Amino acid sequence: MGALIRMSSQDAYQSADDSELVSATLDGHAEAFEVLVERYQRRLFGLVRNYTRNAAEVEDIVQDTFLKAYSRLETFQRSSAFYTWLYRIGVNTILDVMKRRGRNPVTAVEDPELVGRSGTGASDATQERLSIRPDARIEREEIGAITRSVMDELPEIFRTVLVMRELEQMAYQDIADTLEISIGTVESRLFRARARFKQKLLQLHPEFAAGQEAEARESTRAARQKKDSARRAKR
Amino acid sequence: MKNSSDRNHGAAMDCERFQELVPTFVDGEASESLAGAVRKHLIDCTDCRLIVQEEKGLRQWFEPLAGDAGLADVVVPEGFAARVTAMAVASEFGASESLYPDVDQPQHTAAPSLASQERRAPRLLRPMDGVGSSGTVAVERNSLDFVMALTAAAAALMIIVTLMMAQDGRPMVGGSGLRADDAELTEELRKLDEQNALELQAEKAKAEAAAAAESSGIADPALDQPGASK
Q1: Which residue has the higher pLDDT, A99 or A85?
Q2: Which residue in chain B has the smallest CA separation from A5?
Q3: Smallest CA–CA distance from B124 into chain A, residue
Q4: Which of A186-195, B52-61, B121-130 has the lowest mean pLDDT?
Q5: Which of A27-36, A103-112, A135-144, B180-189 has the highest mean pLDDT?
Q6: ipTM entry
Q7: Minimum-distance CB partner of B85 among A34, A144, A173
Q8: Contact B111 A72 (CB under 8 A)
């Protein structure tokens, strides 16, 4: 009987939107919060998994995120989406945990704000020109596994913007709001993160460097520029 | 909102300027006017078209992990939502369930005000109403209410019993209770002091008498003669 009633209450909440569930939770209906957890637990597990492979640790971080969200539910502004708000708590929890545990520390040299977008060095510039599109013959699962392995090697500061942009497909503005940085910094950080991703990908999987193609393109470009400058000189 | 790269794109775009804008353009974050200028440049520039293709090629690495596709193999432990909800409700009673107590303060969210905390507190003691009263969490919550009430009652009872014991269990001396009255002790000490003074006086007198007797003995020379005492 209890299970039947429980099922009906759960069904009623399942069709409610996030804002209604938040209101119901604040009114004392814990089942509404349970539905919110069920609704977003999978995405949060997916998010946290980008930072640690330890299943227990992933569960701890997701759990802590939901507990923090519950305790701060009254601060949730209805103007933003619940998941955006929850996601922000999740990212902060992850970054705090990683920082406390001293994982992948970002040195001053690696900090994009300190280095600047253009100060990537010759090797980075070369990497940026390399075509590293995944081979069409590789299975999607394999591409995903390679990408994960490369992401694991990146400092959190770069990994976070790549996760937000490429995996969560967040807009620049949402990334800026979540990390409390300017859009210009988002652009700069993404630029650096992608450059680092390419660099690390080619380090771990040099077979993906389309070196010959890139060289050919470079020589074509150089020849064209030479031709243009000769033409200008004639004028 | 569009980004800062939108500045200074009124003039005809050169390749160097274009390359700076490629990531923003490919991400779909460029404004309409900027995107239009980029597209126009792409029609005329083969090299820049290649750069755009390369930029798009990089993004293909992330496609298998993007959006819902990346969640296909995510495994959520069974009963996770119910467990977390029960912990969240229980944590409202004061014991924080946080695993990371030193990172509890949010970086990007405002801390709940004291007033809001106070508003939340009474809700916990309200009986569950409506459809919410029969779920698992409601049962756990009601059980917790009961345990809390029982603990409070036990604590009150212990205080009462302690007070009663303090009242009834006081040691009795004679017919009256033990008092912290030191008058008698003071009187006894005074008597002792008087007695000491008398004894001291008597000893002093005795010593004086002995000294007087000794001095009278020295004054009689016959007593110092050998055999005089015989």
Answers
A1: A85
A2: B134
A3: A28
A4: B121-130
A5: A27-36
A6: 0.71
A7: A34
A8: yes
Chain B contacts in chain A segment 46-85 (CB below 8 A): 46, 49, 59-60, 62-64, 66-68, 70-72, 74-75, 85
- Note whether A148 contacts B: Cβ–Cβ < 8 A: yes
Choose between B87 and B95: higher pLDDT. Answer: B87
pLDDT in tens, A192-201: 999 999 999 9
Tokens 């957890």 belong to A37
pLDDT tens digits, residue range A117-155?
443 333 444 444 445 677 777 788 888 899 999 999 999
pLDDT at B9 over 60: no
Q: Do B134 and A2 lie within an 8 Å CB cutoff? A: yes
